[in-house]
Amino acid sequence: MYDEIKDKKLKIDKILKKKKHLCLFDLTFNDQDLFQLYVRLDYVKSSNVFKVVWVNLGQMTSKKTEDWINYNLIYPKEVERFKEIIAKNGISKDYIDKDKVNAKCVINSYITDYEYNKKTFEFKRYIPKCWEFLADALYILFEAMPKYLHVEFQILIEKLINPQKNTIFVRDNKKDNLDDLFDDKTIATGLALHKVGAVAYIEKTNNVTYSVVRAMENYLVSVYDLKETKEMQLSCTCQNHGFCEHMYAALTAMNNKEEKKFFKIAKVDDDKSLLDNINNFEYFLCPGLFEGNFVVIQGDNYQLLPIIVNDKLQFKIVEDDKDKSLEKALKEYLKSINYKDNK
User: Fold this and answer.
1) Cβ distance 209 to 153 under 8 Å?
2) DSSP string of 148-178, one letter each residue
3) Residue 140 CB contacts under 8 Å (≥ 6 apart), including other chains
4) Closest by CA position to 202, among listed 28, 90, 194
């Protein structure tokens, strides 16, 4: 794969050289899980202009190489700003990329009108902190390219962004220390909540782990964890706008591989067995009842589903605990309203 990318890049360089393009800067990003991209900043002698050049190497075929080359003019003042950023920053010779991803990004700078000339930056998928200035420089180039390519730029800078609640960020919870998302007070409170058993429910469904943390209220914590891309997203139903103690308690339970399953309910359907509902994921996670409703999880929040509609029971229990707690609670509620099944 790397040899194929290299061959395509050489063909492109040959064509651009014939067109009198002088390359000032190039980026080759070969990420076999995401995309293959080649970007250049060129000076065109014949017309005395600067151009950003890009090619999607993953889609490029062996025939008619020139048809895959894209160009856009870039203002000289933007080029000067770009060149100044690169020229004023050195490289970290001690940097070793430890990311375990099947990717490689190589950046070469050939800027010659400053004190420092050629520089090479090599990493895997994410721009490292020691070369943070590259993000400022690349932003100038990507601004001169179509908006759909900003997704690629976003991936490159993901490890430089301070994650926020309810936003997707890159974090490997096996390697990175999640504690740096939380302040000391929040960590202490979260550990105390976990210690007293405040994590009442915790269960993973597909790529999401849901937890109910009992504190002032029953807070729902959702942790999206895409192991393939190391993307995470944390949310909590509390009003704290940052990373809260409920999240920390839930993450502690996750790291301890704890599991306290939710009840599960499904729509009443005589044509499907309970096993069919479970196998087809046609059910709701349910932490209990509240005032004539099943409390269920929808997205990152709770929703109330009426138990009875038009004198008919709307849901059936497809998974209970060993003590049949939900079944008992449901029977008590139906008894309190003198409900009779008329089917």
Assistant:
1) no
2) GGHHHHHHHTGGGSPP-TTS-EE--TTTS-G
3) 74, 78, 81, 82, 85
4) 194
**Contact partners, residue 164, CB within 8 Å, separation at least 6:** 242
Angle, in degrees to the nearest 10, between helices 245-255 and 184-195: 60
Question: One-letter amino acid identity for 243?
Answer: F
Pairs from 54-63 (Cβ < 8 Å, separation ≥ 24): 54/145, 54/149, 55/8, 55/12, 57/5, 57/8, 57/9, 57/28, 57/30, 60/8
Cβ within 8 Å of residue 151, ≥6 positions away: none
Strands 119-123 and 103-109: antiparallel
- How crowded is residue 308: how many other Cβ atoms within 10 Å of its Cβ? 15
Domain boundaries, the chain: 2-160, 169-255, 263-336
Helix (H, G, I), strand (E, B) or coil at 318: strand
pLDDT per residue as tens digits for the range 190-244: 999 999 999 999 999 888 999 999 998 999 999 988 777 777 888 999 977 788 9
Class in CATH terms, 2-160: alpha beta
Quick one: CA dihedral 239, 243, 249, 250, positive or negative? positive
Q: 281 pLDDT exceeds 90? A: no
Q: What is the DSSP string of 6-54?
A: HHHHHHHHHHHHHTTEEEEEEEEEEETTTEEEEEEEEEETTTTEEEEEE
Whole-model pTM: value is: 0.56
- Please, what is the Cα angle at 275 between 256 and 312, to 5 degrees? 110
Pairing of strands 263-267, 199-205: unpaired
Is the distance from CB of 202 to CB of 260 less than 8 angstroms? Answer: yes
SS (H, E, C) 241-294: CCCCHHHHHHHHHHHCCCCECCEEEEECCCCCCHHHHHHCCCCEEECEEECCEE
